[in-house]
Each structure stands twice: as structure tokens, then as C-alpha cells.
Fold these 2 entries.
Entry 1:
Amino acid sequence: MNNLADRIAQLCCEKYNSFGKTGKPQDTEWTVLAGIVLKDAQESLSVVSLATGTKCLSGTELLDTKQWEIGSRLSDSHAEVLARRAFLRYLYHQLNLRLNDNNSDIFELDANKTICLRNNISLHYYCSQTPCGDCSIFPKIVENCVFGVNASARKRKLHANDDMEVKRAVLQEDYQCDEYDVHRTGAKCVEIDKQDSRLPGINYHLLGPIRTKPGRGDRTLSLSCSDKIAKWNIIGIQGALLSRLIPPVIIDSFCIGGQSPFSLEAMQRGICERFATRRCPVFMQSEQSFVHRKGDNRARPCPSSIIWCAVPERQLEISVDGRKQGATKKKKRGNYLLISKQELFRTFLVTVDKFNRTTASEENHPKKITYYHAKQSSATYQQSWQLLKLQSFRAWPAKPLYLQDFVLV
Ligand SMILES: [Zn+2]
């Protein structure tokens, strides 16, 4: 198998198949599989993080979070988001290898002894289906539709303009065929933005606005996967905390699993064109399909998630409702998922201490700094994010502050 998309998909599916039954769909359940694959200097591929998941806490459930759960319960358990969190564990492990003077697969020191990414590696993101949100909206019969016919003229207009309203008007020109229906997404336009017409046929959805994920009954405060991936594409997938220690980590290609509805145009629009960015990764679809994908005989979403990453210890975790499966409801370290804010924050603080000792840097932190303040002190990252919000993500809903205002347990 030589095709890169097929090799990536096959590796992720094989890794998934190697896990036991715990956390996997049963009977008529389906799930989504997402993962990140590293291509090294020798062009060999290896899976470094993997996750399944379909659920997201509703706004009401999130606001119901108990004091002991702040920083420990995951609000967004879509596979794409969990695979990123697992990837953060992998990044910390690789960074610690480098700080301990061991060989790291992805980090090295440049001439100034600053930690940088090896320049002959690349990162490839796999998802068994098209991400929810804008990327999922496209005509059902693409070939017979004028959708995409004026693609090059439209692209020129998009690139010539940074005004979001103009961009959206240009994007809406995609919808010039009215006898066809569109693939729909459950994600809803954010409340302060214009809303979908929900008229039958091709104009059901608006193109371009950022959207929140559907939850149990009511809206969630979590953005759709298309929006989150778009953010990672612009300011990196590493997040605020790691930005203090490493340069931005950018994904080079996205591979969607076989037998999922897929449109190259919609992927390019959803991740790049509707925002003020010139950076566009490669988008591909594999022929290889995921065994537990949604289908006629798999109609119910699986409530649990499998989370895995390539680290030496405790690689595999199972979660249900954003909590570690089987954990007792107590404010105690052993009850937290290793990909929760609490545990990633702990890993960050330990890594910062080591970073300071090895690089004579002054990334100091007070003993009882809150998660929120640690994130805010990542100045360069916060500047990029504030600018991006002004340009493209003005409507991005902020999570209530108290959910980030915690110190380590
Ligand atoms: Zn999603």
C-alpha cells in the first residue's frame, strides 16, 4: 500500500484493532476514530496518539460541574479533540526526553540551544469521518452540481479579501444549485451570529460561521471540530501552556476515512478559506474505512471513549461522560484522566522546572498558580489568539472563568 492516505488510515485502524473490547462500540453502536501519525526522516510512519468519541457535555451539564470536578471532567469528547489531548501527553514526553539529553523523535536543539522541531519530520492527522461543523456541509451530489465550478475565481476573491463578511458572501456562492440537498451537521451557528435558514434543500445551512456542537437536549459551549481544527491550523495544536516551551506545532495533512461523505472543497473552506489564513494543509481521503463507523446497522453513538498515546507508561485510558471509567467521585489524583486539564497542568509544571534547570531559562511559576493564570502567562500565544479572535473567531464563546480557575490537587 503506497498511497499516503491509505497507509495513515491503515495504521490508525490497526492500532485501534489491537486494543481490547473495553470502551469500544457494542452491538448497534458506532463511534469516530481520530489519530495523529508521525512521519520521520526515513519516511516511516508511526501512530503517536489515537482516540474514539462522539459525545459532548451540554451547557447545562457543564455548568453543573461540581467543585471537585473542576479541571478534571472533559466537556468535549469528540475523537478529534481527545486525540489532540493525547497528543499533548506525547509532546510532553518527547520534550522531557530532550530535556534529559536523550534522543527525541520530534525535538532537537538548534544552534542557539533552543528547542525546535526536527525539520525532516511531518505530522498527519487521521479522522474516520469528516469533522463536524463547516467541513461537513456540502451538496450531496457534487459532480452534477455547479458547486465548485468557479472554484479558481472564488479562491482569488477569497485571497484578495480579509473581511469576514465579504469572505462569507463569496463562500455562499458555492450554493448555486437548488435541486440538490446538502449533507448536514448537527453543529449550530454560535448564538450571536447569523443562523441557518433550515429551509429544505441546498440552502439549509449557512457557510462560514463558527458553530457549537450538539449536546444532550441543549447547546454546548464547545466549538465544532471544524472550528477547533481551523484554530490549530493557524496558531498550532500545542495549546497555551506548551507554547511557553516549544514552537507552534502544525499538522501537515488531514486524512479522512473511507466511506465517509467527503468534499475537498468543503475541507479547504472549513479549515482555511473562511479565515484570515494563507496556510492550508493537504486534505486526502483514504479508501480504508473504519470498522465501527456510523452505518445502517450501527445507529447509536457509543457513550465511551478510548484514549491512547505513545508514551512509556499508562498509554491507554477509557472515559465515559468526560470522566475516567470506574473512578470514584472524589477529588483525588487517581480519579483523573491523564488527558484532563488537571493532569496536563501537573505535567506542564514538572516540565517547566526541568526546562529551567536545563536551559537556564526563567519560565518561573509561583507555587500555587491557577490553570487560568498559567495559560494567560503564555504571552506570545495569547497575543496570536487575541488577534485571531478579532480577525476570524469573534464569536468564539468563552468557557466560564471558574472552570479554569483551579490549582493542582
Ligand atoms: Zn466533532
Entry 2:
Amino acid sequence: MKIESGQVAVVTGGASGIGYALAEAFASRGLSVVLADVRPEPLGRAAETLAETHAKALAAAGAGVAAVTTDVSDPDAVQALADTTVERFGRVDVVCNNAGVVGRQAPMWEQTPQTWRWLIDVLLLGVANGVRSFAPSMIAQGQGHFLNTASAAGLMRLPLLGPYSTVKHAVVGLTETLDAELRAYAPAVGASALCPGLVDTPLVETSAAIRPDGAETSEPAAPGEDGSRKPIPGEVLTAAEVAEISIAGIEAGRVRILTHTDSFRPARARLAAVLADVDQAAASRDGSAG
Ligand SMILES: NC(=O)c1ccc[n+]([C@@H]2O[C@H](COP(=O)([O-])OP(=O)(O)OC[C@H]3O[C@@H](n4cnc5c(N)ncnc54)[C@H](O)[C@@H]3O)[C@@H](O)[C@H]2O)c1
């Protein structure tokens, strides 16, 4: 689907990081943007900044910005977000189910039940809630796209982030099935799983600040003397780079959008290992049949 002026985009987890960068990419192209986030103050500030920064592009397109405080793990709140979007802007073209948190780095047997529950509720059911509330409008319109933020950790194993990696695999699987279902009902409605590697965002800090009782997160790294976050080793993209790659991926109709070159090799290695298992199973069935 071509992303263009006059369309309406919804972005969950829109107060910060990848979500805010997606919102900027949409606003700069003249789309109306509905930002949703569980943190009301950062959300309000983000919506103001977005409207100011992109005032010209938004005014030229007759587009607007709205903010709706939303906990994506609450199905009623996500339905209210969908209702508000259609009441305010009349339609919805792109839904970015992007809100996210990350748990503590530890082996899986040390992860608390509350950590599992939290990640499943926000990262997986948050996406499912978005799909339930927004898909009917898109199908009725005959046009639309879901961008579900998974992770490179949804395409390969990631020891010590077991719950996160497990749930991100589920988001990739959900999105592949969703794309097939949507296209069967309306060929111009589809879905993409965004699979970034490391992105320079405050994900660890935000997660630590909002984790529920019993859920665990890693300690955020101490900031440098100038207040900046400590550089992370490895390939790190900016949220703005990820947003631009995402839009290109939506326009190309990619079901999985990979962003980081350092993900290509491990993703390929996992697929090769799966293929080897398939080939071995097929060979052993052939052998037993003969
Ligand atoms: N930063 C990375 O390296 C990276 C890599 C791969 C995938 N991701 C994914 O990208 C997405 C965005 O994360 P980010 O890195 O931009 O971090 P971020 O912390 O900057 O943004 C996440 C936003 O989600 C919001 N949020 C958390 N729980 C919510 C809830 N229940 N309901 C609504 N909003 C909620 C937070 O308040 C925050 O504003 C997440 O799904 C994350 O898992 C991040």
C-alpha cells in the first residue's frame, strides 16, 4: 500500500522511540496521526511536538494529530482508541501495533510468572487487541495495513531474553497468519511484522519505570556525564532509520521487514536449521516408506 497524504495512521507506543519516529514519518508525508501510549504525560508532550514540528505538512494536507491514552493490553481501551480514531478522522489506513516493554536478562527458569504475563499481555495480546478493533474498518474500506512491531528476536533465538524472544516469535507468526486472512477478505489489506535489531531508544528505561508488581526488568545502564545513554555494542540504528525502512517495507508489501544487516546471518542460520530438520524428516519418512 502506498503511504500518502490524506490517510490516517494510528501508532501505539507513540510517545517515544520507534513509535514516535513512525509518527514523524507519517506526519511529514501529510497523514493524520493518532498517537496512543500508556504514559499520559509523555504522550501529551509527544503529540504537541509532533504537531509543531510538522505543522506545515499537516496543514497542507488538512491533516491533524490526536493523542489517546491507551493501555494496549486492555481490549476495551483499544476499542475506544479505534472508535475515537474513526470519530475524529473518519477512517484508518495504517495501524502500528508497536507498544512494547522488555524484561530482565536472565535464563528462562529464573523469569517470574509476572514477567511472562506482562510481556504476553503487552507485546502479544496488545497486537491481537489492535487487530480485533481495527481490522473490520480496514476490510470495510478495502484498504489498509497493520505494522506489528516484532523484533529480530522473533526470527532467531535470543538466550537470556526468553520471554521477550518467545513472544516476539509469536508476533511474527500472528502477523504472517493475519496477512493471509486479511488478503482473503480484502486483497488490498495486509500486515507486516517489523523485525529490528538494536535501536537507540529508551526501551529498557521505560520498561523499568512502568513494570507491574512482580515483573522484572534489567537495570538501565547509568547515563554518561552529559546525561546521554551509554553506547550499546553492535549495529544500532536510529528510530528514524527504522521508521523509513518500515514505510518502504509497507509499500513493498513485505510480510517481514528486517532492518539490521547483523540480523541477516542469524535469521538465515535459523531457517537453514529448520530446513535441515524438514529435509531429514522427509528423508527418514522416504526411507521408512521404501
Ligand atoms: N529498541 C530496540 O532495540 C528494539 C528492537 C526490536 C524491537 N523493539 C520493539 O519496538 C517497540 C517500541 O519500543 P522502543 O524501542 O521504541 O521503546 P520505547 O520505550 O521508546 O517505546 C515504547 C513505548 O511503548 C509504551 N508502552 C509500554 N507499555 C504499553 C502499554 N501497555 N500500552 C501502551 N503503550 C505502552 C511506552 O510507554 C513507550 O512509550 C517495542 O515493541 C519493542 O519491543 C525495540
